[in-house]
Amino acid sequence: MQVAVELGVQPNGAPVPMDLEELLATRLLVQGNSGSGKSHLLRRLLEQSAEWVQQVVIDPEGDFVTLSERYGHVVVDADRDEEELEEIARRIRQHRVSVVLNLEGLDAEGQMRAAGTFLNGLFEAERDHWYPVLVVVDEAQLFAPAAAGDVSDEARKLSLGAMANLMSRGRKRGLAGVIATQRLAKLAKNVAAEASNFLMGRTFLDIDMARAADLLGMDRRGAESFRDLPRGSFVALGPALSRRPLNVKIGGVETSARSTSPKLIPLAEARDNIADVIFAPVTHERPARASARPTATADLLRQLAEARPVEVVAPQPDEPEIDHAARAAGIEAVLAAVLETPEASFRPVAVLYQDFVMRCRIQKIPGAVMDLAEFRRQIAVARAGVTVEAAAGTDWDAAVALSAQLTEDLQGMFLVLARAAMEKAPCPGDLQLARTCGSRSPGRARRLLAYVEEKGLIAVRTDRRGNRVVALPDLDWETAPGRPDAPDEGDALNQAAE
C-alpha cells in the first residue's frame, strides 16, 4: 500500500503527492534563499507525515518546537553533555518518539557538537530498534559546511561525519535524511550528492543556480528561472515526487513558528520630550562586571559545600487516603474515553497521552498520573478489549507479561491476537492488526506479524482455504481460522461515528 502525503499543488491546481516510503529510501534536499519558504515546506512535510512515520527535527533556531503542541513531539533542549545526548537519542529510537532537538541558545560550535553527537546516537542504536525515522535538518550548511570556518576542526569533523553517515549509510538503519540549506555552495558536496529527491526554491546567486540546475538536469535557461520563483514555490524532482522537473506551490500548515517574517509597523507619534526620556539619568546601579575567568567547577562545588545551610525538615500534612479501587476504575474509564475519540487508533501515542492527562485532571483522578511508558502499556491492554471479568480464571496476566518482551507499538497487536486465541475467535485481519499499530497499511501489519513470529512469541500458519491461524505456544492458545483480508469493523465504526 502506497502512503503519500499532499505536498502542494501544480500551477494548474493538480495536487502534488510525495511517496513517503520512497522518500524513506531516497532522501530529500531542499534549497532556497532566506525567505523562499524552506521552513514552511519542512513544516508542511512534517505535519502531513506525523501520523505515518517517526520524526526527528534538528532545529537550530527553535522554530519547530511548536509541533509539540499539536502533534506531541517531545522537545529536547541540546544544552546537555554528550553522553546524555547520546543516551536520549538511543531511547528515542527504542521508544519511537518524535522529537525536536532545540539548538537555540548554543553558539555555532556548540550546535555542531550537539547535532553531531545526537545524530551519532541515532545512528548507533541497536539493530532491534532500526525503525523508519524521518530526520529533518534545517540550515544543513551549519552542520555540513563545504569549507572550514571559525569553529574547531574537532567540532566540524564530528558534525560533518554525522551528516555524511545520515545521508549515505542511514538508509540501512532506517534513517531518512531531509536536509534544507540556504546555499548549495556552502553545503558539503558529499552530503548533498546522496539525496535523490530535490525541491529547489528561489535563489539569486549564479553559483547556487548553476549547481541547482545541474542537480535537476536543467540547462542554463532553466537555471535562470530560479530567480523568478515566488515565495513558497519550488521545482520538484525525484522518485518520491516526479520523474520530470515540476513546479509546486506548497500547501498550508496548521502550526506556526515562534519567529515570524519582518512586517512594517507604523512608527509611534513623535514626542517633544523624547530626547529627555532617552537621556534621563540612570538611577539604579550598574551590575558589577563578571570576572573574565569563570570559577573552576571543583572550587565552586567546594564553596557550595562549605556554605550549605542546615536542612530543616518541615512536617508534612497527612495526605488523604486514596481509594485505589475507585482510582483504577476512574483510569479505566478515562482510557476508554480516549480510545473512543475519532481516529484514536491512528493518532500518535504522545497526543493520546496529553488527552489522557487532561481528562484525568478534569475528572480529578487522585494520585500521580502514570508516565508515558506505563500509558503505552495500558493503552495496549485497553485496545485488546479484555475486561477483568473475562480475564478471571485465565492466563491473561501471563499474556500481558509476554507482551512486555516487545516494543510498545507491537504490544497492542500481540494482545489483540492473544485475546482472539484465548476466546478461540477468528484470527484478526491485516487491517485490524494494522490499526492496533496506528497504521492503515496491511503490508505493514504483515511485516510486523512476521517480526513477532521471529521473536518466537507466536506461530503463524495458513490452512487450505487461505485462512490464517495464529498460535501462542507459551500459553497453548490458538485462534480460529480467519481471513487475512477481512474488513476492519473497528475502523468502520470510527468512521460511522465521525
Automatic annotation (TrEMBL):
InterPro entries: AAA+_ATPase, ATPase_Atu1862_pred, HerA-like, HerA_central, P-loop_NTPase
Stored Pfam families: DUF87
Sequence segments annotated as region (Disordered): 476-498
Residue intervals of the AAA+ ATPase domain: 24-213
Matches recorded under CDD domains: TrwB_TraG_TraD_VirD4
Record key words, sorted: ATP-binding, Nucleotide-binding
Cited PANTHER family: HELICASE MJ1565-RELATED
Protein's recorded name: ATP-binding protein
Protein source organism: Terrihabitans rhizophilus
